[in-house]
Amino acid sequence: MDFGDVLLTALGAGLILLMLADVFRTLLYPHGSGPVSRAIMRGLWLLTRKLRGRASTIAAPLAMAAVIAAWAGLAAIGWALLYLPHLPEGFVYAESVPQHGDFTEALYVSLVTLSTVGFGEIVAAHPLLRLVASFQAVTGFGLLTATVSWILQMYPALIRRRALAHDLNLFREAAGSEGVASLNPQHAAGLLESLARNVAAVSIDLLSFHETYYFHEAEQRGSLPATVAYAQQLAADAQGSKNPDLQFAGRMLYAALDDLAEVLRGKFGHPGTTSSDVFDSYALHHKHRHPPVPGSE
User: Fold this and answer.
1) Residues 34 and 26 sit within 8 Å (Cβ to Cβ)
2) Mean pLDDT in each 10-residue stretch from start to end of the chain (297 residues)?
3) 167: buried, middle or exposed (CB in 10 Å: 19+, 13-18, 0-12)?
């Protein structure tokens, strides 16, 4: 192998390692995301923030598809660069199959192996190349199952977030303007403690499934950014109550909301010294709050 072949091999190995590291950070490492997936998700989010209509609601699903395509592309190109220096001498060709030995042929071999299709008209001859091809096939199967699992794990987290927003809206409609004051204190305390647990679950989901943040809800009724301020109001009203159980439930809900604000501030860069400021920024970023007009009160 000359210097060019060594360079191609090193570049291919680097692309494969980048793909494996990104998949590990995104799918297996808790509270993390890989550089490739994070860049794609955030890039499409920023690109569609100023768009109207359905563009912002489909940005996150499109970004997930783009991340999966990027992983497959890195794997296919990486292994193609590993095969390229050994084509065509290192492979056995079936009869009537032309031997080109260029990058297109290396990419074809890589895609066939990665997808585990295995047509068999071009087969590695050298024992080391056969091991490399076998490892690629295993990686391709693992990548397929991992991405399916990723998708299946994502939507329960989104459902929990939407359910919390719906619960807050139902509470607001049922309690009216009086809020917790219209309920039996023990009953209200139980409801607020349940809300606190659900807020904590959403915080954990945002840490564990970083990508769920970028899913935009078209309807305010199912949008947590549009309803989380009401949860703060409930916590404040409960802490002002004379009932100790209701006061404790209010403090519990406030603590859960502060944890959520810290996640939004630390993980997603929302500014603000208070939780209210962070939630205002959160609502504004998800288009459920209009920016303030300069000079207005």
Assistant:
1) yes
2) 88 95 84 83 78 65 91 95 92 88 93 87 90 92 89 90 93 86 88 95 91 83 90 92 93 96 92 93 73 41
3) middle
Q: Are 224 and 288 in contact (CB under 8 A)?
A: no
pTM: 0.81
Same domain for 166 and 272? Answer: yes
Does residue 291 fall inside a structural domain? no
**Inter-residue contact 272 to 265 (CB < 8 Å):** yes
Residues in a beta bridge with 124: 91
Q: Within 10 A of 285 (CB to CB), how many other CB atoms are there?
A: 18
d(CA 217, CA 206): 15
Q: DSSP states of 154-212 as a string?
A: HHHHHHHHHHHHHHHHHHHHHHGGGGGGGS-HHHHHHHHHHHHHHHHHHHHHHHH-GGG
Of 230, 238, 235, 241, the C-alpha closest to 283 is 230
Contact in structure between 260 and 203 (CB atoms under 8 Å): yes
Residues 6+ apart with CB under 8 A from 284: 290, 291
Check: CB of residue 26 under 8 Å from CB of residue 32: yes
Last residue of a domain, one of 147, 178, 208: 147
Residues 274-283 as b/e (b if ≥16 CB within 10 A, e otherwise) read: ebeebbbbbb
Residues 205 and 94 in one domain: no
The reply to whether 219 falls in a domain is yes
CATH number for the domain harbouring residue 18: 1.10.287.70
* Structural domains counted in the chain: 2
The region, left, alpha or beta by phi > 0 then psi within -120 to 50, assigned to residue 215 is beta
Domain boundary among 147, 171, 199: 147
Cβ atoms of residues 208 and 30 within 8 Å: yes
